[in-house]
Amino acid sequence: MDQIKKKLLEKGEKECAVVKRLISEFGNVVVESVNIDQILTGMKGMTSLLTVTSKLDPENGIRYRGYSIQELQDKLPKTSPDGEPLPEGLFLLMLLGELPTLEQTQSLSKEWFERSHVPDHVKKVLDAMPLEAKPMTQFSTAIISMATDSLFQKAHRAGISKNDYWDTTYEDVMNLIARLPVVAAYIYRRTFKDGTFIEPDPKLDWAANFAHMMGYDDEEIYRLFRMYMCIHADHEGGNVSAHATHLVGTALSNPYYSYAAGMLGLAGPLHGYANQEVMFWIYEMIKVIGDSDDKEEIRTQIEAYVRKTISEGKVIPGYGHAVLRVTDPRFTAQQQFAEKYVADDKLINIVNMLYDIVPPILKSLGKVKNPWPNVDAFSGALLQHYGISEYFFYTVMFGVSRALGVLAQLIWDRMYNLPLERPSSETLEWFKEKAGI
Ligand code: HAX
Questions:
Q1: Using a 6 Å cutoff on CB, does residue 286 contact ligand 1?
Q2: Using one digit for the tens of pLDDT, what is the confidence trace for 212-243?
Q3: DSSP E strands: which ranges in 80-187?
Q4: N or C terminus: fewer CB in 10 A for the chain?
């Protein structure tokens, strides 16, 4: 058994005993009560999931296994001291709960490279799709078409014990994560470039290889991809992509189906599609505000555009969050990356200006719970700066990163043998009766 699996099993055996005890001995302990508004407004703040990979604090942002993004900047292995942590290290941290060494991290880069071969039929499936098919449509189709290789599904059909489900889930997850950059780059190049495929480079790590296969070969872009892949990787269990992956996984659907379900949720405008919406909205705004050099004039115009968007009953994309109540640390991480590497950029300047203008306006509405920017407010401008201008593709990039967290968690779901998820629902009559109306 390889070292990662060995550690996983050691930890798993101890934790499974705890989960079993919680259910059998402490199953009756009441943890919190539920209000009608929580049920009718998206179950916000209602604890209903066990997620070990990360926890989202409304005031401090995401913590992967207890570590903030800022802390991980120093603690996770990097290929150069002034560079960005490798997402492989973050995956090991989320999976095993321990900070990995550089050697363990680089060994995972090698393993993922070796597992990265995408079956020919997947490319054929993609080639059969029209070039106008949205990248997320292509991406989810490609993921589902890879399920022909699911080892979990084969083992389940062969009748393995449920105590062993985690093992083939782990194998599927490792193969899937290894292949995602290849599939995503294939979609990018067939949709937006000349359709020639660039082979992965065995010398490069997972994120740098993604950039390389998309056609971007520059150390600064590799760093951008490492950072991007780390900050989008996980956001505890209740967000739509994580929850959908988990939910479908509890039906024992194979990891490919489970993750595809998560990606279809990520493709929604209130979730991961927001990174495209931000760019679309900013470009529409630029058409209206023009190209003046007068900063005050531009500021006034932007302010008017923000108010107009709201008055039309639309949201400001990239702002607000269901859990966070502060500026998203993932926004700040990207802002710091831009401060370090980008001298001056018109779009990034606009994004920074919006950061000044939007929160007071949203606050003044009196109903927006979080007027601050989220991760999607910055990512597009940064990618545009490095020449990746095809913003329809941005949610695919988000999705490749999100695999790290939701699939590490899927392995734990299977390790704990978490059962079928099946909450109950009630009719309107029931709610009226409860409310006494
Ligand atoms: N602009 C204008 N109004 C907003 C707003 C925004 N950015 N964010 C929230 N509101 C409004 C809501 O529409 C709601 O209005 P109504 O009561 O009239 O329906 C009110 O404020 C209360 O909403 P909330 O409780 O603050 O927000 P929710 O938890 O319901 O929703 C959202 C959180 C992220 C969906 C929301 O803030 C939003 O639509 N933001 C813009 C889209 C976006 O950036 N999504 C990406 C979020 C991060 C993410 O998942 N990335 O992948």
A1: no
A2: 999 999 999 999 999 999 999 999 999 999 99
A3: none
A4: C
Among 385, 404, 432, the domain-final residue is 385
**pLDDT tens digit string along 92-105?**
999 999 999 999 99
Domain membership of residue 257 (yes or no) is yes
Q: Residues 423, 429, 431, 433: is their CA dihedral positive or negative?
A: negative
Does 112 map to a domain? Answer: yes
Q: Which tokens in the block code for residue 71?
A: 């802390």
Domain containing 128: what range? 93-271+392-415
Q: Cα–Cα distance between 282 and 288 in angstroms, integer?
A: 10
| Cβ neighbour number for residue 288 with a 10 Å cutoff | 11
pLDDT digit string, tens, across residues 158-172: 999 999 999 999 999
Question: pTM for the complete prediction?
Answer: 0.96
- Ligand 1 centroid to 321 CA: how many Å? 6
Q: In what order do the strands lie in the sheet with 61-64?
A: 54-57, 61-64, 67-68
376 lines ligand 1 (CB under 6 A): yes
Q: Is 2 within the bounds of a domain? A: no
Asked if residues 321 and 327 have their Cβ atoms less than 8 Å apart, the reply is no
Q: Whose Cα sits closest to atom 32 in ligand 1?
A: 321
Q: Is the CB–ligand 1 distance for residue 320 below 6 Å?
A: yes
Q: Is 261 exposed, middle or buried (0-12, 13-18, 19+ CB in 10 A)?
A: buried
Percent of the chain with pLDDT over 70: 100
Task: Look up residue 347 and give its two tokens.
Answer: 């779009």
- Residue 53 placed within a domain: no
Whether 295 has a pLDDT exceeding 90, the answer reads: no
Domain count, the chain: 2
Verify that 405 and 256 share a domain, yes or no.
yes
Q: Which residues are 373's β-sheet partners?
A: 319
Mean pLDDT of the chain: 97
Cα separation, 407 vs 8, in Å, equals 14
CB-based contacts of 265, cutoff 8 Å, min separation 6: 240, 241, 243, 244, 271
Report the C-alpha gap between 350 and 286 in whole angstroms.
9
Q: Is 317 in the pocket of ligand 1 (CB under 6 A)?
A: yes
The CA-based diameter of the chain, rounded to the nearest angstrom, is 70
Catalytic residues: 271, 321, 376
CA of 420 to the centre of ligand 1 (A): 30
Q: Same domain for 266 and 289?
A: no
**What average pLDDT does the segment 391-417 reach?**
98
